[in-house]
Amino acid sequence: MQSNSALEYDYSIAKLFLFATVAFGIIGLLLGVIIAFQMAFPNLNYLAGEFGTFGRLRPLHTNGIIYGFTLSGIWATWYYVGQRVLKISYNEYPFLRFIGYLHFCLYILLMILAVISLFAGLTQSKEYSELVWPLDLLVVIVWVLWGFSLFGSMALRREQTIYITLWYFIATFVAISALYIFNNLSIPTYFVSGVGSILHSISFYAGTNDAMIQWWFGHNAVAFVFTSGIIGIIYYFLPKESGQPIFSYKLTLFSFWGLMFVYIWAGSHHLIYSTVPDWMQTMGSIFSVVLILPSWGTAINMLLTMKGQWHQLKESPLIKFLILASTWYMLTTLEGPIQSIKSVNALAHFTDWIIGHVHDAALGWVSFTIIAACYHMTPRLFKREIYSKNLMDIQFWIQSAAIVLYFSSMWIAGITQGMMWRATDEFGSLAYSFIDTVTVLMPYYVIRAIGGALYFLGFIIFTYNIIMTIVASRELEREPNYATPMAA
Prior knowledge:
By secondary structure, the chain is an all-alpha fold. Helices cover 72% and strands 1% of the residues.
């Protein structure tokens, strides 16, 4: 067995998930751009027949970004960071390496089957849980394999302290394990009646109960993938890249446990003014507002980590990505609770303001954090200098401008929708028809599509920079301690 100082980490699995992150990012964003233009120019829905319509492409977009791009980024980080903070190497433990390879292979198989089934229109019709029941079983297997890797590595660790990043990864694993299984409990109809498709099933729950379970999971898919998993990433890479210790360990404890206890009960804010009991709607609103505290605790902890080191924002594009990601996290975790207040929700629900909120988080917080993690990991995985610092800067400003176009257009469109839907004439009748609102919103949909296209362009620049780093950049003799080495 090797000594701690002589450890040679096995990054082969991290590399595979890095490639998957980039690939799913391109696919997910491209689909998003296509459907954004379909909203702005409806005739585009008919160019590719039924398989190219908004209804077919939208679940592919959401699943591709959440379970493709984001999870691949989290798992690339795990297979890179896990060995380092636990002081183990997969070279020492071939079984853990085997689990990692099996995890990746079954995950890619699952994603291929997901694409095929969703393109074919096979779906459970549940938000973020569209996959048919046989694929749900494969999801469980893939998730359990990550659990084996996660807890198996911890059992063999040399470093006794479990670093903050792993707290959040454990939370992601445990919460999604329970929530996904309960939400996807279903009865395959073929085995009951002997007729119909073998892939068809009905939910184990009915009516209002099904809605409550669905949004208990649906909102917490955001909580424990987009939030806890991404917080885990930034807690490692911001201190590592800046060379600064985390500002406050006590604030870390408060934020972690506050997030765990509060976030899981906020999902019913999706069901305000529905048949769900009023007390549950109120509980969802209250917990959503309280959620500001641990969310801002994390973001403030990140920003204050840079105390006295703000000059790094000018010097390092990677620090720019991480700091702006934290800033977007603050904004989105204020915006979401505001939207969950009943009086505000009466205006905002079902409008494009909600779409704007989701993409503030996905584009500004989640994607920027994963992009920064990839930029940090790539020189260390492949022992090569980042190909171009200038391209990183260009990408950052293009994507930042894209997010501004996206959220501003959707905020204006959403509030316009809400006001028009509520407007009445002197007789108390609705002042506008639904098509009136659609007509008014078309310019904002065009702006949203342009913003999405710009963001996609930035991601293409990122992909090019990563590929050129791997194949054409200067080799590094040793791993840098802190800042990622970058060419001009």
